[in-house]
Amino acid sequence: MEANKLRLVFFFSFVTLIPTLLAGIGNFDDYWKKREQQAWKKTLAAYNPNPENVTSDTNHSIHKALISHKNQTRAYHKAYHGKTNSTASHRRNMMGKHKKYSGPCLATNPIDRCWRCKPDWAKNRKKLANCVLGFGHQTQGGKRGRFYIVTDNSDDDMLNPKPGTLRHAVIQKEPLWIVFAHDMHIKLNQELLITSKKTIDGRGANVHIANGAGITIQFVEDVILHNLHIHNIIPRSGGLIRDSVDHYGFRTQSDGDGISIFGSSNVWLDHISMHECTDGLIDAIQGSTAITISNCHFTHHNDVILLGASDSYSKDKLMQVTVAFNHFGKELIQRMPRCRWGFFHVVNNDYTHWKMYAIGGSQHPTIISQGNRYIAPDDPKAKEITNRNYGTEEEYRTWVWRSEGDMFLNGAHFKTSGPAAPPKLTYNKLEMIKAKPATFVRRLTRFSGALDCKKGVKC
């Protein structure tokens, strides 16, 4: 009798821990064990032992894009204003708000320059997969697969998703490039579980995933999410949910994250507009790596981006994430991002709002901040950009947190730590080109968030 009681106590205690340890998997069966093992092998393969090389390559691409944009801007001013420079306009751009642009198509950063402003973009959608930079640069998504057109915005059957729905598309075994037949508002009844080698491409339609569950990228690799609006995500009850064409299982209650990346590698999130999710906008945890978050627009949220969820999960030391060309906008509070263990390159982002802090971390993460613009809030207690969570100065003085070429406005300040100078590195001339300073951030992030792309028209 006592033995049976102990077994029950152990069982329910373990079930209680499962949501934390396994992110919603209620029954960690042989299928999920195999996926976890495969995902960890992919993580090891995706991990770059020399992350500085990736940051140098990104810096070189930024430099090239800025030269191209400078020539575009001169041509535009000459054609439309009869002049090539405007000091007043420059000053407004430095301190002013992001406003909707109504001029000719401009691609202002190296990722966008790779595919934007071409009228035939819709005929060459998969070119996008060649454009990612940073730690997610090997992400291919569904490039090698066929197109799948989502025609139905419903999400009614979790076990047997209806063909033509987004849920039916993402559980297929084969690589797929998923597009939308028309504008859609999709309310997910339960979390959307994406399988490997998928691209969800919202260009050409106004696609909102809202007022329901969020997106889960768990124990997979090669996923691209592009040009989506994700907002007002709420927890859902869980239950039996199909996660592939030949498997379904019990899921516990979802947290209400907009996008949850769990034990996955080679993930690219680009041109996504996000706000007002119950938990985080983006979480990447449990050994996820090779991730690029770019050209996104974040507003109206508390915990924005979490990169590493546990101070005790040392496998996150393999986590490598690039955060580039994003706009952290109105009514944000903290975690832009909040980092643990790994290596994080935060480059050429525009931080126009925060209420507590912008960048935080624990467990000695390496954070390289280059060419960002930080505009502090008026609150005198919130001027510091950085926050070492739960660490004493004695503990964090060796953490490598560097600021290079950043701009600090309205009293913003970045508390650096680690060696006074970076370690001496040997690279070729292209790799050593540094990122442009933060005076260029306004133009680099001008078109952050979901774009209004129409077929046959430059996007």
Automatic annotation (TrEMBL):
Binds 1 Ca(2+) ion. Required for its activity. One of its GO terms (biological process) is pectin catabolic process. Its EC number is 4.2.2.2. It is an enzyme of class 4 (lyase). Gene3D superfamilies: Single-stranded right-handed beta-helix, Pectin lyase-like (2.160.20.10). Its cofactor is Ca(2+). Keywords: Calcium, Glycoprotein, Lyase, Metal-binding, Signal. It holds the Pfam family Pec_lyase_N. SMART domains: Amb_all. Residues 1-23 form the signal peptide. GO terms for molecular function: metal ion binding; pectate lyase activity. Belongs to the polysaccharide lyase 1 family. PANTHER family: PECTATE LYASE (PTHR31683:SF184), PECTATE LYASE 18-RELATED (PTHR31683). This is Pectate lyase. The lineage of its organism: Eukaryota, Viridiplantae, Streptophyta, Embryophyta, Tracheophyta.
